[in-house]
Amino acid sequence: MADKHPIENVMGISMDKIHEMTDVNTIIGDPISSPDGTTVIPVSKVSFGFVSGGSDLPTQSPDKFAGGSGAGVTVKPVAFIVIKKDGDVKLLELGGKGSPVDSVIDALPGIIDKVKGMIDKKKAEGDTAAEASAE
Known about the structure:
By secondary structure, the protein is of the alpha+beta class. It folds into two domains: 1-95, no CATH class; 98-135. The chain has helices at residues 6-21, 24-27, 100-134, and strands at 32-33, 39-56, 65-83, 89-93.
């Protein structure tokens, strides 16, 4: 079996170092708990860049090789998952929304809950008034 070409060694070492720097906890962070029972989980965007190159040098010796590699990693926090003690889960995104329509869509569940609560309250008040007039 032939020995590895030097560029394979350069690339292999670079990829191993990138692998050592990151794991799943880089993207989904460790949960942080508060005394009131709320848990916050950070979410990040991870971007990688990698380049490697090399060349055999035109000399009499076949062992002459020049090469190099470079890598970059960017970790950018993008959101937090907030889990409250009562089981309510929300995703809090960092930065601006894409459009006003996105904001309306995100707000709809809360608006529907508030309207439903108002209707239930009015219905309960109506039932109480009906019972009072019947007596």
